[in-house]
Amino acid sequence: MRKTGIALLFGLISSVAYAGECTVDAEATASMAFNLKEIVISKKCTEVTINLKNSGTMAKNIMGHNLVISKASDMQAVLMDGSAAGLDNNYVKVNDARVVVNTKVIGGGESASVKFNLSKVKVSDSYMFFCSFPGHAGVMKGNVKFM
């Protein structure tokens, strides 16, 4: 029974990114998926680094991906405004105060990194991460938790 519990725990961990060292590594694929369903960030972090890799092969204007964090309640509005902002603005409205952080849109084989200060979030609020490339956020999203 104990071995089964340990195996289940390791299976769960593979779909959750723990920012124990205040770094999150995420991967996006050509099949419109993140390798993570949840990002857990330590409240002890002052600055968090997000590293995103696109493991697909298509150009960013065809199947590009980014990673955006906002309050869950702001996600739909961020997506609508981001769609209007276009690829040149990484599908994120310029200077959008609702966006905690976002990577640039990257194509297949590319990577991007961004940093943000944890003071930009209220750890008791509900946050989401998602890809703002039009049509992707329906499946490319997950929860951000602060522990």
Task: Give an overview in words.
This protein has a single domain (16-146), classed as Immunoglobulin-like (Sandwich), CATH 2.60.40. It is globular and about 40 Å long. With 147 residues, the protein is of the alpha/beta class. The strands form 2 sheets. A 6-stranded mixed beta sheet has the order 1-3-9-8-5-6, with no helix packed on it. It has a 3-stranded mixed beta sheet with strand order 2-4-7, with no helix packed on it. The chain has helices spanning 2-13, 60-63, 75-85; strands spanning 16-19, 23-28, 38-41, 47-54, 68-71, 99-102, 111-117, 127-130, 141-146. It has 3 helices and 9 strands; from the N terminus they run αββββαβαββββ.
